[in-house]
Design goal:
alpha/beta, 29% helix, binds zinc ion
Length: 496
């Protein structure tokens, strides 16, 4: 303990000595200590390999994927048990095609993808009248670094569809937007990112059973949990077609919503109480992932299919600080339920006449989730943002471990500590912070933070009160790939 106290004292001295005082354009309401050190956060530099991959994203390829999926007539999950559908129709035919598509991408990269088909039987439940086989299809781009490859990130969409009747196994259910668009994002990410080697592992998934009760994603999330996957992030794309309804002047093709949970649904009651007591309701791992996606979009604006900032074609995520839309759920919640960080991408403005509807025209209104209401260029923008995020996560070092704020004494300074395990050489760390009412990170420590000793432990003290801001700590590699931030938890003593 004595040694630790000495180290702590040194850290204070170093921190105060190396951070220059600098003025920033903040309002008079901003405490001076918040801006006394550090620098405003700026976008990370674009990685040329990621930028090149984004330029390969093809609206035409996305259109081909969505048209092919619509061509299966129905992808109702229950159709796996029907015997009388014509050949080439139904959810099983769609699964076959998705599997073949992953294999095609893998052939193009020398067998770099491990293609898996996971079929399981779901017992009868409210929207599943009889025991039903459900198939998840996914492709694994295994990380090239033996240590980092244990870390995984995952992108998913659901390939099942439905019409007005969720039990209808034969009626037409094109599901062009919900959710062939999300599957197209996952497949297009697989196609363009499989040409790159990443240290960490990326999984590209297409799940079924979403419309029956999130069955496929729950199965996959359970598998990830029971097999001990080190799954750091899940990107769920559901209804990302950029719904195009003639006359809808309020649609905005420049925006995609990113939903993230606040207090994790997986938090035990004592954890939830701690989160509330700290004012950490907006700092779940899922929300830090959402903030990271915002940062990625700022880096890759104007590259490939990520539109340029300031132009009429500007495309960017809007962080929605709630788990999902009113009355609706999605596959990310299956992963949240198992304690994984997971967010949902959805178009800005949905048209509910074009979801979960039988194909028909009534009083001049066209119902049905058909191709004509999907904007393939919009889906390409969403795919580019997903690909940039997956690639950044897979390149970035692991987030800091055991991130803590030392709360030994009442103090206007804030002392942090964290540790680094299995971290690539060259990994650096940044403490980031924001005002309590700010949605995303504003400032960061702009000088190197060196380990406190040979054990890989880090400690630093900043002259900012932990009572007035929210802090995070994140990892950065030498090329500028940033991990999501981790919210440091209070610790009464330096115990390492
Ligand atoms: Zn959906």
């Amino acid at each position: 303990m004595k040694v630790c106290v000495i180290r702590f004292t040194i850290a204070v001295t170093v921190a105060v000595a190396i951070y220059p005082s600098s003025a920033h354009a903040f309002s008079d309401d901003t405490g001076r200590d918040l801006v006394a050190i550090g620098s405003p956060i700026r976008p990370a530099p674009a990685d040329p390999a990621i930028a090149h991959a984004l330029q390969q994203i093809s609206p035409q390829q996305i259109q081909h994927t969505i048209e092919t999926l619509v061509g299966f007539h129905t992808r109702n999950t229950l159709s796996s048990m029907t015997k009388d559908l014509p050949s080439g129709q139904g959810v099983s035919a769609a699964a076959d095609w998705i599997e073949s598509e992953f294999k095609r991408y893998s052939d193009a990269c020398g067998g770099c993808l491990e293609v898996r088909r996971d079929t399981f039987t779901e017992s009868p439940q409210s929207r599943i009248p009889q025991a039903t086989t459900i198939t998840n299809v996914y492709a694994i781009l295994r990380g090239s670094d033996p240590t980092q490859s244990k870390r995984m990130v995952l992108v998913t969409g659901h390939y099942d569809s439905r019409n007005s009747d969720t039990l209808d196994t034969h009626g037409e259910a094109p599901g062009a937007n919900d959710d062939a668009s999300g599957v197209a994002v996952s497949l297009e990410c697989a196609r363009v990112l499989s040409k790159i080697k990443f240290p960490a592992t990326i999984i590209f998934a297409a799940v079924a059973g979403e419309e029956q009760g999130l069955n496929g994603s729950r199965h996959l999330a359970n598998l990830a949990k029971s097999d001990g996957w080190n799954l750091e992030a899940v990107l769920n794309n559901d209804i990302v077609g950029g719904n195009t309804t003639p006359g809808d002047a309020l649609q905005n093709k420049s925006l995609v919503r990113v939903f993230s949970e606040g207090i994790p649904v997986s938090a035990a009651s004592d954890q939830a109480k701690l989160i509330q007591s700290l004012g950490y309701e907006s700092d779940s791992p899922s929300r830090e992932l959402a903030r990271m996606i915002l940062g990625v979009s700022e880096t890759y604006h104007g590259i490939g299919n990520v539109r340029k900032s300031g132009s009429p074609t500007y495309f960017h995520p809007v962080l929605e600080f709630r788990r999902d839309r009113f009355l609706r759920g999605g596959d990310h919640t299956s992963f949240n339920g198992e304690g994984f960080a997971a967010v949902r991408f959805t178009e800005w403005r949905e048209d509910f006449n074009h979801q979960h509807q039988n194909m028909r025209t009534e009083n001049g209104i066209e119902y049905g989730d058909t191709l004509k209401f999907v904007d393939f260029q919009y889906v390409a923008h969403v795919a580019a943002l997903n690909a940039a995020t997956l690639a950044t996560l897979a390149y970035a070092p692991p987030p800091p471990e055991n991130a803590g704020i030392v709360t030994k004494n009442l103090d206007n300074n804030t002392t942090f500590k964290w540790s680094a395990a299995d971290t690539p050489s060259g990994t650096k760390y940044e403490v980031v912070w924001r005002e309590m009412t700010a949605p995303s990170w504003q400032f960061f420590t702009d000088k190197d933070i060196t380990p406190s000793g040979s054990s890989g432990d880090y400690s630093i003290t900043l002259p900012i009160s932990k009572d007035n801001v929210i802090f995070g700590i994140r990892s950065v590699d030498s090329q500028g790939h940033r991990s999501p931030a981790v919210a440091p938890m209070p610790e009464r003593e330096l115990n390492h």
